[in-house]
Amino acid sequence: MKKLTLLSLLFLISCGDKLAPVRKDAIKPAVITQPLPHDTDDPAIWIHPEDATKSLVIGTDKDTDGGLYVFDLEGKIIKKSEVLKRPNNVDVAYALSIGGKKVDIAVTTERETNKIRIFSLPDLKPIDNGGIEVFVGETARDPMGISLYTRASDGAIFAIVGRKFGPSRTYLWQYQLSDSGDGTVAAKLVRKFGNFSGKKEIEAIAVDNELGYVYCSDEQFGVRKYYADPAKNDNTELAVFGQNDFKSDQEGIAIYKTTATTGYILVSNQQANTFIVYAREGTNGNPNEHKMIAEIPTSTIECDGAEATNINLGSKFPNGMFVAMSNGMTFHFYKWDDMQALIDLQKK
């Protein structure tokens, strides 16, 4: 759906358009970022290695002359990448080995060039020699969703990429990122997997590094679950859930970890302006049974992308925060404590 300015969105709501208004019981964000020029779409959180209060949020501005923007925890824009041609989703990974050094990275899809773009953090400098083409040889390319998986056994980093259109099988392609030898990043295709209903698109992708799963939102169908590690050589679809829990589109996915193996999967119920919550560890001892345990109304409008962290980010976000894109060209930062309070209330 094309994003609207806040003014036009409020006008449509007042005229009875199908877009849902923000509910009166919606959680209010602790911070709303400075607006971007065009169209926010997806956030990622980078945790500062020495002082978590200096952590950053990276967000996409989705337009032909868009880019990645970096916000501090007060929502102020502090940096912008070089111009990107319609960046869509973004994710962050840590300690990619380049030239003998460990480099944190942000990776985004660039739809109009059919590439992924890779930037070092926190300086947001390109380290991809102009970008890496994806879905080469395919008729339908248009990369949209992306999530990064870091394998615990060896620290290898993989990009799992989705697209606007694609086949009913092998909709997702997975690339291993590595040092090209000249100070930039190379990518090797290592896997094609993932089913697609054909109803709309798969944009939102999220990886649980510790448990080794990848989740993707097949919009208007359900949330699909697979193993993240290509070395398993197992493309079995482990679960499809959330098929009856959404007003229309399943969208952005965030994972909040309460321990190494427990927590929550939060999925944007886009047209209802809420987030549907599932147990990260599964239900009734079955790690692949995910039943809705809560629905959280937020002040975000038509949310495409979301992210969460459990890291103490200071007095405003002592138990971490939840970040969600909102129409009006902004991102909303929520105190995790506020989210947890509603989850606890509904779980009782």
Automatic annotation (TrEMBL):
Name the record gives this protein: 3-phytase
GO MF term (any one): inositol hexakisphosphate 3-phosphatase activity
Domain of life of the native organism: Bacteria
Domain BPP, chain residue ranges per copy: 17-343
InterPro entries in the record: 6-blade_b-propeller_TolB-like, B-propeller_Phytase
Family annotation (PROSITE patterns): BP_PHYTASE, PROKAR_LIPOPROTEIN
